[in-house]
TrEMBL record:
Similarity comment text for this entry: Belongs to the NDK family.
Span of domain Nucleoside diphosphate kinase-like: 12-150
GO CC, one annotated term: cilium
UniProt subunit comment: Component of the axonemal radial spoke complex 1 (RS1), at least composed of spoke head proteins RSPH1, RSPH3, RSPH9 and the cilia-specific component RSPH4A or sperm-specific component RSPH6A, spoke stalk proteins RSPH14, DNAJB13, DYDC1, ROPN1L and NME5, and the anchor protein IQUB. Interacts with IQUB.
Keyword list, A-Z: Cell projection, Cilium, Cytoplasm, Cytoskeleton, Developmental protein, Differentiation, Flagellum, Hydrolase, Kinase, Spermatogenesis, Transferase
Signal sequence annotation: none
Encoding gene, per UniProt annotation: Nme5
Keyword Ubl conjugation: no
Protein name from the UniProt record: Nucleoside diphosphate kinase homolog 5
Keyword Kinase: yes
A GO biological process held by the record: cilium movement
Pfam families to which the protein is assigned, alphabetical: Dpy-30, NDK
Length: 212
């Protein structure tokens, strides 16, 4: 019976996380929980937003009754902005946060971050992007210099794996089998670094003779 292999995919997604001003003293504790939940913190900065910047960041909430209190709260002190990455980062981060109202979170999701660190509906300790598109917009807002390259998916991901990853990995595994080193993991890691097809190379070296 032929074994069906799953199609290759690249599982990487990014989302924005904010540690809000009222829990900034819990920064290290919250970051530890984030890392232990399987996220990678790929960018981080501490900053303080002006009320105008908060208004721009929460522009989709403009006109709601709580909007003035929200901008005042978010500009009341420094906050920590982080770009988190992992498989399905947006949905996993929202699940870890729990409901936006911290009082309700304590009833329905007592182990969520907002239940643990939040106070009420407004002061709910942490922010998370609602969707992939909002995550891209919010990351660009908090990290203006960031370059968000499109993540390969579907056929593009399969083409990338077949063209760049599989040939190099197959050659490395073949060399590993021939070499039979004492520490195969370290040997393979060194081999892949040495034979990285994307390693920058000088296209043309001008020698002294060529100048003459």
């Amino acid at each position: 019976m032929q074994m069906l292999m799953p199609e290759p995919q690249i599982f990487v997604e990014r989302t924005l996380a904010l540690i809000k001003p009222d829990v900034i003293d819990k920064e290290e504790e919250i970051e530890d929980l984030i890392l232990r939940s399987g996220f990678l913190i790929i960018q981080k900065r501490k900053l303080q937003l002006s009320p105008e910047q908060c208004s721009n960041f929460y522009a989709d909430q403009y006109g709601k009754l709580f909007f003035p209190n929200l901008t005042a709260y978010m500009s009341s002190g420094p906050l920590v902005a982080m770009v988190l990455a992992r498989h399905c980062a947006v949905s996993y981060w929202k699940e870890l946060l729990g409901p936006s109202n911290s009082i309700r979170a304590r009833r329905t999701h007592p182990h969520s971050l907002r239940a643990i660190y939040g106070t009420d509906d407004l002061r709910n300790a942490l922010h998370g992007s609602l969707s992939i598109s909002s995550a891209e917009r919010e990351i660009r807002f908090m990290f203006p210099q960031v370059i968000l390259e499109p993540i390969p998916a579907g056929q593009n991901a399969r083409d990338y794996l077949n063209l760049y990853v599989k040939p190099t990995l197959l050659a490395g595994l073949t060399a590993l089998c021939k070499e039979k080193p004492a520490d195969p993991m370290s040997w393979l890691a060194d081999w892949l670094i040495e034979h990285n097809p994307n390693k920058p190379r000088l296209q043309h070296q001008i020698t002294e003779e060529e100048h003459q």
